[in-house]
Design brief:
- By secondary structure, the chain is α+β, with helices and mostly antiparallel strands.
- It has twelve helices and 30 strands.
- The termini are far apart.
- About 3% of the residues have low confidence.
- One of its GO terms (molecular function) is structural constituent of nuclear pore.
């Protein structure tokens, strides 16, 4: 079995039921070691490093997951968000809990619920997108984009706080400074900037900076980064700087100072005043150069691609013609709170434009473990855009403040179709068995791709009815059930409710008594088709339940076989145990009798000591010579022991000193040897050079001698 197939054998994926009809989602965190899989209104979770089995929680009491819902996960993997156009549910993943069956305990993990009908929590407009704030403490803040282009921040752990609503309509007459037609949102890598994609003019990028949660998760390193940027911007102010820019930069420096004063360094958090959370949109960003052909198309998606483990990133904007524009922010923008239509250093540089064949881009997704890579989801495929051949160099140049290396770089990313599959929903990175894998969910399928080492893609499609080898349970005895019993019981309860409930499609009385062969037969067939679809859904649930029970029975048979084997081994060892038991009983009896004798002696000794303590005659009696000799011997032994301790300490000190001296001598010897070798090398080189010089001199003398001889002979 290949490594990717080993990942398929994880029980959390083996439990995929009714996959052909139920939407599924997968998420990971902690470098791909914590996995969350959602299907059939059940959350399954496990730690791939420490657990071979998984835990589950049925949330059907709170919501029924269907195609209208979308699911997101927080960066820590602790919270899940379920939302459609009407409602938002936030649930906690019960890491560390087992067998959560009681309803009261299940309700404790339902943290937050919002409906658009709650007027006190914002407008009644429908929900367009929801994001977890990446810098909120305990993932306690969610950001909601609505159809009326307002952006609302909810504190899900303290729902008494009134939500913050941004980009609201102005009640005053005249031009409204709000931004309309917001189609997508994306957070920056540092979590303080929220990019907004506006489609009024085709595709403009705006930003909220800073977008702060009620409690900010902030480390000292990040705080130092923000402080340095603010100081540089403050020092760059001069008499020509616009007054609004000065006011914003000064307020930015004041905010950073408060963050520094109020930071809880142990917990890495700081509370934010409401005045610093009421920010206004700034922009639009200039994009230079902007491709002329894109003026005819409309932007649809925006996201940020991390290119290193620091703060550097690439902004990607997707258009409805299949184009992907990779942009880089070349100027440092300032924070802005109370200025309308604020523009200062809002600039993006176009690095590369890539066009894919599919124009129906559904979403753009990045993974924190895959730096410089973007995954493009369309209706029937998933593409991978790999920019690491130039983004890694760009990151290094930024960190080293040296752009010379960019001169020879070709800004050309690799684009490949990594999988062709209908209706892909989500992608996750999973680290399992020392391998790196991508797991893609779609309706009815899980696709696994091994991306370890040389990044060879090994794809295995997994159907819900496939059965793979089980994972070895380990050396100690463990139950081999891959699916918790409470999950099967919840599926049974759901099926029983579906059986009891009547059909939603009601046959009108006018069609009930009519024969099928008539002019209205098409209407009757349409009614029968709807009813058959309902029964088909019930049959699918029954098949899923039956398949689950069948697997459970097989596993119970296997478990019974294991237990019978273990019992047989124990019984077979009974004869040996009985033989050893007799010998051990004899030893035990001997030890018990000896113990009794010792206790009797101890009792007599105690009585004697008591008599001595109570007798005045024995207390006043002088010590005899034998006792004096005995006490003297004890004193000598104590003194000798103390001498041994002192001599041992002295020897240890001498040994430590000798060890240090030997280390020093060894180091000096190595240095001396190296110095001697170097001197010999220099002497050898000098002798070689002298030899060359002498040889050249000899040749010159021979030449001169020959010339003198020739001249002398010619004169004679």
């Amino acid at each position: 079995m290949s490594k990717s197939n080993s990942l398929v054998a994880l029980p959390i994926f083996q439990a995929s039921l009714s996959a052909s009809q139920s939407p599924s989602y997968i998420f990971s965190s902690h470098n791909g070691t914590r996995v969350v899989f959602i299907q059939d209104n059940i959350i399954r979770w496990c730690n791939s490093l420490t657990e071979s089995s998984y835990q589950s929680l049925d949330f059907s009491r709170h919501l029924i997951l269907d195609d209208t819902f979308r699911v997101i996960s927080s960066a820590s993997g602790d919270l899940l968000g379920f939302f459609n156009v009407q409602e938002i549910f936030v649930m906690e993943v019960p890491w560390g809990y087992n067998n959560i069956e009681e309803a009261s305990v299940q309700d404790a993990f339902q943290l937050f619920h919002y409906s658009v009908g709650q007027v006190e929590n914002g407008s009644r407009s429908l929900i367009k997108k929801v994001l977890f704030h990446p810098k909120s403490y305990h993932d306690s803040c969610i950001v909601v984009l609505k159809e009326d282009d307002t952006i609302t921040m909810f504190d899900i752990l303290n729902q008494q706080h009134k939500p913050i609503v941004l980009n609201k309509r102005s009640n005053s007459f005249g031009l409204d400074a709000r931004v309309n037609d917001i189609t997508d949102l994306a957070f920056s890598r540092d979590g303080l900037t929220l990019y907004c994609l506006n489609t009024t003019e085709g595709g403009d990028v705006f930003a909220f900076y800073p977008l702060l949660p009620p409690v900010l998760l902030l480390g000292e390193k990040d705080l130092g980064w923000i402080l340095n940027k603010s100081l540089v911007m403050y020092e760059s102010l001069d008499s020509t700087t616009d007054i609004t820019v000065k006011r914003n930069i000064i307020k930015q420096l004041q905010l950073v100072s408060k963050l520094h004063e109020n930071l809880d360094s142990q917990l890495g958090k700081v509370e934010i005043d409401e005045e610093y959370r009421l920010v206004k949109m700034q922009g639009p960003f200039t994009i230079n150069p902007f491709p002329d052909e894109l003026y005819e198309y409309t932007a649809a998606n925006i996201t940020t691609i991390p290119i290193d483990n620091m703060q550097n990133e690439i902004v990607c904007v997707g258009f409805d013609d299949g184009s992907l524009n990779l942009l880089f922010q070349d100027l440092e923008m300032s924070m802005s709170w109370d200025v309308d239509n604020y523009v200062h250093n809002n600039s993006l540089v176009l690095i590369e434009r890539i066009k894919i064949q599919e124009t129906d881009i559904k979403s753009l997704k990045t993974l924190p473990e895959e730096l410089g890579k973007l995954y493009v989801f369309s209706e029937n495929s998933v593409h991978q855009l790999d920019s690491t051949n130039w983004s890694a160099i760009l990151s290094r140049c930024i960190e080293e403040s040296d752009l010379n290396a960019l001169g020879d770089v070709k800004f050309e990313s690799k684009l490949e179709n990594i999988v062709t599959i209908e209706h892909p929903s989500n992608l996750a990175y999973i680290s399992w068995n020392d391998t790196s894998n991508l797991v893609l969910t779609a309706r009815g399928k899980l696709t696994f791709q091994n991306i370890s080492n040389d990044k060879e893609l090994q794809t295995t499609k997994f159907d819900a009815n496939n059965k793979s080898d089980r994972i070895d349970a380990g050396k100690h005895y463990e139950m081999s059930f891959t699916q918790p019993i409470n999950e099967i019981l919840s599926l049974n309860e759901s099926f029983q409710k579906a059986c009891i409930s009547p059909c939603e499609k009601i046959i009108p009385p006018a069609y009930r008594q009519m024969p099928l062969k008539n002019e209205a037969s098409e209407n009757q067939l349409e009614i029968f088709t709807g009813i058959s679809k309902e029964f088909l859904q019930k049959i699918i649930k029954a098949q899923s339940l039956g398949f689950s029970i069948y697997n459970r029975i097989q596993e119970q048979q296997f478990e019974l076989t294991r237990q019978l084997q273990a019992t047989s081994k124990i019984i077979s060892k009974d004869a040996d145990l009985q033989e050893k038991l007799g010998a051990q009983n004899k030893k035990w009896d001997a030890q018990v009798s000896r113990q009794v004798k010792l206790m009797e002696r101890f009792k007599k000794l105690t009585e004697n000591l008591s008599q001595i303590a109570e007798s005045k005659k024995l207390r006043e009696k002088n010590i005899n010579r034998g006792e004096m000799k005995w006490f003297k011997e004890i004193r000598n032994q104590i003194l000798q022991f103390n001498n041994f301790v002192r001599s041992q300490k002295s020897l240890q000190q001498d040994l430590s000193y000798m060890k240090k001296e030997l280390t020093r001598i060894e180091a000096e010897t190595i240095k001396t040897d190296e110095k001697t070798q170097n001197e010999w090398d220099e002497l050898r080189k000098m002798l070689e050079e002298d030899s060359k010089i002498i040889k050249e001199c000899n040749e010159e003398l021979m030449h001169v001698s020959q010339q003198l001889t020739t001249n002398t002979q010619s004169k004679n």
